[in-house]
Design goal:
The complex is a heterodimer of chains A (about 950) and B (about 425).
Chain A (H helix, E strand, L loop, with lengths): L13 H9 L4 H16 L8 H6 L6 H14 L4 H14 L5 H13 L3 H15 L4 H17 L1 H6 L2 H8 L5 H17 L11 H11 L4 H11 L7 H11 L8 H17 L5 H17 L4 H17 L19 H14 L5 H11 L5 H17 L4 H13 L3 H17 L8 H6 L7 H13 L7 H9 L7 H17 L5 H12 L5 H16 L1 H8 L15 H8 L5 H5 L32 H4 L9 H4 L13 H7 L15 H6 L3 H9 L11 H17 L10 E4 L7 E10 L2 E10 L9 E4 L7 E2 L14 E9 L12 E7 L4 E7 L14 H10 L5 E7 L6 H10 L3 E8 L2 E9 L5 E8 L5 E8 L5 H13 L2
Antiparallel strand pairs in A: 1-2, 2-3, 3-6, 4-7, 5-6, 7-8, 9-13, 10-11, 11-12, 12-13
Helix pairs in contact in A: 1-2, 2-4, 4-6, 5-6, 5-7, 6-7, 6-8, 7-8, 8-11, 10-11, 11-12, 11-13, 12-13, 13-15, 14-15, 15-16, 17-18, 17-30, 18-20, 19-20, 20-21, 20-22, 21-22, 22-24, 24-26, 25-26, 26-27, 26-28, 26-29, 27-28, 28-29
Chain B lengths: L1 E8 L4 E6 L9 H10 L9 E3 L4 E7 L2 E7 L5 H19 L4 H6 L1 H11 E2 L2 E2 L4 H7 L5 H10 L29 E14 L5 E15 L5 E6 L8 E3 L5 H7 L1 E4 L4 E10 L9 E10 L2 E10 L7 E9 L4 E8 L3 E5 L4 E7 L8 E8 L12 E8 L8 E9 L8 E3 L3 E15 L2
Parallel strand pairs in B: 8-24
Antiparallel strand pairs in B: 1-2, 1-5, 3-4, 4-5, 6-7, 8-9, 9-13, 10-12, 10-22, 11-13, 14-15, 15-20, 16-19, 16-21, 17-20, 18-19, 21-24, 22-23
Chain lengths: ~950, ~425
Amino acid sequence: MTDSKYFTTTKKGEIFELKNELNSDKKEKKKEAVKKVIASMTVGKDVSALFPDVVNCMQTDNLELKKLVYLYLMNYAKSQPDMAIMAVNTFVKDCEDTNPLIRALAVRTMGCIRVDKITEYLCEPLRKCLKDEDPYVRKTAAVCVAKLHDINAQLVEDQGFLDQLRELLSDSNPMVVANAVAALSEISDTSPSPAAQMEMNQQTINKLLAALNECTEWGQIFILDALSNYVPKDDREAQSICERVTPRLAHSNAGVVLSAVKVLMKGMEYVGMESEFVTTLQKKLAPPLVTLLSSEPEVQYVALRNINLIVQKRPDILKHEMKVFFVKYNDPIYVKLEKLDIMIRLATQENIAQVLAELKEYATEVDVDFVRKSVRAIGRCAIKVEQAAERCVSTLLDLIQTKVNYVVQEAIVVIKDIFRKYPNKYESIISTLCENLESLDEPDARASMIWIVGEYAERIDNADELLESFLEGFHDESTQVQLQLLTAIVKLFLKKPTETQELVQQVLSLATQDSDNPDLRDRGYIYWRLLSTDPAAAKEVVLAEKPLISSETDRLEPTLLDELICYIASLASVYHKPPSAFVEGQALVVRKTQLPVRSASGEPGATGATESPVPQQVQPAQQQQSVIPSHDTAMGDLLGDLLSMDLNPPQQQMSMTPAPQQDMGGMDLLGGGLDSLLGGPSPVAGMPASQASMGGGLGDILGLGISSTTYVPPKQVWLPASKAKGLEVSGTFSIRQNVRYMDLTLKNNAMAPMGDFAIQFNKNSFGLSPASALQVPSPLSPGQTADVTLPLGTNGPVQKMDPLMNLQVAMKNNIDVFYFSCLIPIHLLFTEDGQMDRKVFLATWKDIPDSNEVQKEVANPNQLDPKGLSDKLQQSFIFTIAQRNVDGRDMLYQSLKLTNGIWVLAELKIQPRSPTMTLSLKTRALDVIPHVQQAYELIIANM
Amino acid sequence: MIHSLFMINSAGDIFMEKHWKSVISRSVCDYFFEEQQKANSPEDVNPVISTPHHYLIHIYRENIYFVAVCTTEVPPLFVIEFLHRVVDTFTDYFGDGGETAIKDNYVIVYELLEEMLDNGFPLATESNILKELIKPPNILRTVVNTVTGSSNLADTLPTGQLSNVPWRRAGVKYTNNEAYFDVIEEIDAIIDKQGSTVFADIQGVIDCCVKLSGMPDLTLSFMNPRILDDVSFHPCVRFKRWESERVLSFVPPDGNFRLISYHVGSQNMVAIPVYVKPNISFREGGGRFDVTVGPKQTMGKLVESVVITCAMPKVVLNMNLTPTQGTYTFDPVAKVLTWDVGKINPQKLPNLRGNISLQSGSPPPESNPAISVQFKIQQMAVSGLKVNRLDMYGESSPKKSFSFEKYKPFKGVKYLTKAGNFQVRT
């Protein structure tokens, strides 16, 4: 006899029948009836009409019946709040029962009844239960506070339940502690009010660590997650936390293991970089991570997503474990793809042979997605491990020989990337590639092949025929292929002008006259004009040397990676996105986001971040060295960039071909100009135009009214009129009201009026970019001068420039596009939150190696006293942390922070009545030092 | 934490739902169904799905998707581990965790889910405690219940939940005390065409069946504990003693449980006990299939229960084979060949050969199928792990300090090596 009988329905009047049975005198019948009701409820039938009858069954001694009725109540109380009140009395009575099980059950159930009216009655019993003598009741009550908070947060705060919950953190029973932690974390996750935040100090941490060993596995997860939010005071504390958490790695629950890994990964950041402790800890991390991979596939998937982060952060941990990532044929596809990704990350010169053999094996499997990704992986290996490139290429050639259509196409796409990485090395295989021309039917593959043909047109005898064959179906091709074809034919023309004139004219007219696609048309026009005005320039532009693609294009950005490391084991680590990007109603996201330590975090241990409403933008130490992703590649000139490169963040450099998404995103300058010409929103505009002009205007007024506090260098002529067909541009940079501006003076020295101004910056070292469109009174009549301010943002694309402070600007008007470059004064990038805490300053100063200290004599022409100096410097956001007097000399200790998070620490030695001072600068990013020195000199000289 | 749970069967019916907080409409599962449509096979559905307002985390077991719905940031492994625990509990209670079992016992299922999670926080997940709260069904009890009208819900407080050893209930009594330990090792391996090992490692567990009265305290030591450098323990194991002395010291739960699981990594050499010599070739319209199995490094033990499965390419129509021993079946729908070999006689190696017929007109497949092998070897742990001795002490009186009494129970250790995910590429 089984319960399935409850699911069978009688033919007529089911509810009516149940009602009768519920009101039956026989206990047995009642219980059977309640069971049937619950069964209907479970399968989603609406049995809420029976509410009063079921509630009537509640006053019983039979525990099972009570529980069943409770189940029903929880489900339907919301829809019948008035009826639910009837149940309150029984609850209150049950909360005083002698049996702790009943007390706990009652308080638990009450919390689940999500009716406001009931919650009021709940407060008193709950308060009692939180102090119950029985730990089972206390731990249940702790969770109940979280439930209540979910229903009515204000009530919980007003009634002081949060304090009671915090007291439970030091309960003698580990289970109670664990539940209190869980409840508090959930509350602080959902509540923005500071009262709800969990305060962590050394004492609580010690209690949590003590409870950690003795509570249930789930409790351990809660406690570990809470621990990971704590910022240890110093090395020693971090080390001791790590030591006490390490045994958790041997837990059989994968959740515990991964949460422990999180605590340890974070902890390692706080212990010195090269310490032996870290080395041994790293060794201990490998086995548990590997073990996770032999669990159920779902666990494997989450583990792999996390391992993906871990190998990017600390590649040493798993460097010898390549083999465990080898794919088994019956792994689910989501596991296969993740494993592949990690295999490439772990690929080195030593293990590349093995990896390649595996990848080749995978490329013959049945699952198309997986095969494609495997082929792509071979290409990535070639780009990553230079020594293996040759073998990768020959493997790819073998695969092309199989003639399996999608394998061939994928191989051609990656071979194009290999060409970009190792130019003039493997072009001998082009003929093999050309054999497969006909079989390509995917846009990606076609575009790649066309790019190859265009790029190496001089080596392919029949390049013109090949391209011509594509041209026949020009209008049926996807945009990507069309754009590529256009560029390729122009390249071909520039290389073999005599034979291909007809072809190029054909493609230009196809692109400009017969196409509705603005991108294609724009590009067509650019080429056309280039070719017709100055073929030499066209050659320079179109055939410009392209920067090599970097091997680590698929890596996460270091800042994001550091943030995600703090979220190991959470959903964020699976999505590889910070929670702010996807979690709804997350309170203050700052809560866990800081890996950083000594150089940065506010007051140690005081969890400054949780309390300050404005998240301090703190950057971890090791990140500072790599804020500027250094592409050791020759920067193509801006024009070359505009045409055949992208203006996008580096991850898209992989495909050099101006694929459609690049055109969409980056949008070359002329396209932008065209847009603004049409009155549409200009692509450079960060905010709507009206707002932008407001901002600009306001800035202007303020700029005129109040003399700017920071030092503003005088305007310089950046673009002489002779070079810009009569437009003279001079300008400078300034900060007003914490907004950075580029102040420009435009002068029209030409004979005709000018209009339609637009501005665009090239990628630069600090990601400066226009925050709104350029607002120039238009037209600018001959002889007229216009002062323009352009607010600047610092979130633009970043690329290290040489010289560092160089900024390449393109300005367009109705006549032409002009290019000029200027130097950004570094003090423009000092931020207003550059004041470091004293202790942090001290620790950071010690932490930065002495080799990073640079001294310089600086003139003090006005012989200002320390007070005057620090006041003046503060106006330019150089903050004085401390001042002391040694041997009659005044020492000022100062800090400043750049917009990209680089901290610079300074020590200024002032000799009384001496015209010079000694300035010592210390920072992790040595490149900025000369510029900061210059800034000091300039600011001081202009006081 | 966990907000709701939906159980979905292979037909796409949501046959059970449970909400621990407010009710979430089952329409949220539409996102899941969407993902499911994209997947090639039921196993291929991505376990973590994000939707505009919820996160769906699921496991696929017993042909059922257990879909947990979360609304806030939550450790996904916590959810996945919990779901596995739910299914394990069902299996423990009903003998299997399939759809029929769940439907047949829906009241218990509902009660269990209610006890296991409170407001999304795990409450009682230890099978010992749950069994005290909710008695598992058995035929006798069902009969008694129907006659007497009593229920399988206990009226007592689960004492274990509060003690320092939450995994063990108090007052256990047996007339025959016994403790059995099974050392089971599974070999995961990938063997390439040439027969050399691409990758191999060993997943080991020690499963125990301990039926001892009172509060026994056991110590298990090994001849060669150094093999165990990557272990996961049941919470009952005292980690400190393991760290310092390399012995397992613990107060066991009552009944069956997994004491430790361990992993012997790919750095160590793994002895591969069987080899497979495949010879599969395709040509236009058909092909040859010829597979031989033989013992390799078995330390003189017999290889038993050998089963060879091979997922053939989709174009294979049928196979006509002759085994020298055992029986073979070919499932023409799933295209899976299964050959139940049985024992391997080293003198006369089992062989299966014959013809493959392909769908007419379709080109022969590009690649050969991989073969997966199952086998068992009794009385051998392939890692070489050996139990040295087992000491037992029991608390006979409540004054515990001086009254340890030696048990005289039955005890035994069994070793078993079997294939885990053992694949041969052809």
